[in-house]
Amino acid sequence: MRSIKPDRIRSRVGKGAGVCVFAHPAILSSGMLLGGSIRRRLALGVRLVCLAGLAAWALLTPGFMTPLSIFSLLTTVSLIGCVAVGMTFITLTGNIMSLALGATLSAAAMVFLASLSLGTGTAFLLALLFGTVITGLQGAIVGWFRANPLLVSIAALGLIIGAAEVLTGGTRVYPATRGFAAFKGRIAGIPVEVLVFFATVILGQLIVSWTRIGRAMQMTGSNPRAAEVAGIKVPHIVTVAYLLAGAFACVSGVLLAARYGSGDMELGSGYDYGAIAAVLVGGTAIQGGAGSVLRTLVGATVIAAVQVCLLLRGFSDQLQYFITGLIVLGVVMLHTLGERA
Amino acid sequence: MTRRWADRLLRAKVRPFTILGGAVLVLALMDRGTGYFFSVGTAFSMLQLFATFGLVALGLGLSMLVGEFDLSVAGIMSLGGCVAVLTGAHHPSLGLACGLAAGLASGFVQGLIMTWLRLSSVAVTLGGLLTLQGLTYVLTDNRTISYPSMEVALGLNAPILGLLSLRSAVAIAVFVVTAAAMAWTHIGRDVVACGSDRRAAMTAGVNTDRVVIGVFTVSGLMSALGGVLLDYSLGAASPVALADVLAPAVAAAIIGGISVVGGRGHPLGIAAGVLTLAILRSGLSAIGVSPHVHDIVTGAILLAVAVLDAPDLARRIIAFRLSGGWRHS
């Protein structure tokens, strides 16, 4: 699955290549190209060593390989993971991140709980529709006017929080029925959250790598101008990416609502930062164009594994945030080291 | 004639003050002469809010002016405050120094990483934000830490001349100094040059790396100062929710006429942006509107400015008109 990515080709050939148009292929391959590929391999190597080290550390942690810790790891991954899968689409199209997804999923959870009396399926669809429309509108503004994505998402954050507080009067929302239990139990011994999360990962990865929209998203992210020249309707693609992001984030909102049985605007706060951390740790490029949902799955798992290990080894609960931040910084630095020839 | 005036009022340099005037006018109309809005109390609380968000907005605004984006200001603000409260229990000035040093170091290191590895500032400061916020959680153990000396809090918040407090006076002084430095020294010229065209600035002999590192260091310093002043005056430090700081700071900078692509804007514009937000907050609560309406109003203004500044807005409108307007689309 390799689409045309002008930025990456340029970075692979090296900065000087644009100047020496008539350079012999042999010179290119022996000089700059090789230099670039060594860097790439080095970065890949460092990444693999880190992953292996983490795996060894996890296995050596007493109590890690028990069903209890594995399931707690999987559930942690699932709740943040659905949001991260959604965020992947935004990052992939070159729009960095949405700071409003956490608030969106809180609001979607409240929509879900408030409309449970209409039936579980209807409530789920309403919550999904709510998040999709709210986030899709932001995508349309970003796509059609090329407005700054961070600004639009911060504006949306203010609007969502303000509207939610005014509408609910700042009170928690409690469900009328217990129809949310369907999203809570276990099927064949596996928590429903985990099953739902794996379904979103598979669906997300199928969209990214097997559909024309997914390919168009990668091209849009790597060079929007080139994508437009190639006949891609960039505004549509960006809007679709945001629509998907909203839908996936709201799945997490419904799972959270089912887990806690009530909802307020605090429910999903911080989930947007957790999600972007998972996306970046997985190795999706922050400038867009290169990435996948499977990488996000890896990123979310790495972060959750570190958290579980720290907890099992008796470190303070707070250390995990600090370590996660350091991992994000490290991966971002490593990533550009590998990308740049 | 009216059109020319409208153009003049909406021009980038004047727009922050137009929005500020508009906000005052709307609130005065909503107040309907009951006098709750035009009172010394409202003005005082407005300036207190100015002190809370002003410095962090100024730091963020300066980073946007140089064409970058400092997401970490929220983390630095909360770190600076916590470090100051933890170290300055007996000597407030020692705490102030430690808090400022933490902010300075965070900004400097991030600037260094960015220029050294040629990384985008959003990527580095996003990592920085998560790291610094995590560090704050570790330092405070995710609890609210109270500051033993209440005299400091009372001293910082005591009214001076009815309107100001020591805290807001410091914030205003920082704004004045920054505005003066930007207007009359070569630093201001270099920052704007780097923001509008990095390559051209480099060709013209500006050490752009040094400017970027400098701006991020100053931004860290200002955010930390804002955090120290806030936590000292609250008498407590706690790891704040990130959105509570970042959203108002970005909104203030954008309403204040700072362009996201860099090179456009002025510290006085940022001051007007912060004042607009502060007036909306304290004014709306003074006349008895639900306190969360200001979130909606701020979001709406921010969205409007984001759309107005979007590079493709004109293109889409022209394409829409050419296609025959509403009838055909």
What does this molecule look like?
The complex is a heterodimer of chains A (341) and B (329). Chain A has a single domain, classed as Orthogonal Bundle (ABC transporter involved in vitamin B12 uptake, BtuC). Chain A is 72% helix and 1% strand. Chain A has a two-stranded antiparallel sheet with strand order 1-2. The relative contact order of chain A is 0.18. Chain B is mainly α. In chain B, the strands form two sheets. In chain B, strands 1-4 form a two-stranded antiparallel sheet. Chain B has a two-stranded antiparallel ribbon with strand order 2-3. Chain B is globular and about 70 Å long. Chain B is built from 15 helices and four strands. Classes of the chains: A mainly alpha (341), B mainly alpha (329). At the A-B interface, helix 5, helix 6, helix 11 and helix 13 of A face helix 6, helix 12 and helix 14 of B.
Descriptors:
heterodimer; A: 341 residues; mainly alpha; ABC transporter involved in vitamin B12 uptake, BtuC; two-stranded antiparallel sheet; 2 strands; 1% strand; globular; disordered N terminus; B: 329 residues; two-stranded antiparallel ribbon; 15 helices; 4 strands
Quick recap:
Chain A has 341 residues and is mainly α. Chain A contains 13 helices and two strands, in the order H-H-H-H-H-H-E-E-H-H-H-H-H-H-H.
Fold blueprint:
The complex is a heterodimer of chains A (about 350) and B (about 325).
Chain A: H1 6-13, H2 25-60, H3 67-92, H4 101-114, H5 120-145, H6 149-168, E1 186-187, E2 190-191, H7 192-210, H8 212-222, H9 224-229, H10 234-260, H11 271-282, H12 293-312, H13 319-339
Antiparallel strand pairs in A: 1-2
Chain B: H1 2-10, H2 15-31, H3 40-65, H4 73-87, H5 92-117, H6 121-140, E1 145-146, H7 150-157, E2 159-160, E3 164-165, H8 166-184, H9 186-196, H10 198-203, H11 208-234, E4 236-237, H12 242-255, H13 267-286, H14 293-308, H15 313-322
Antiparallel strand pairs in B: 1-4, 2-3
Helix pairs in contact in B: 2-13, 3-8, 3-11, 3-12, 3-13, 4-5, 4-6, 4-11, 5-6, 5-11, 7-11, 8-9, 9-11, 12-13, 12-14, 13-14
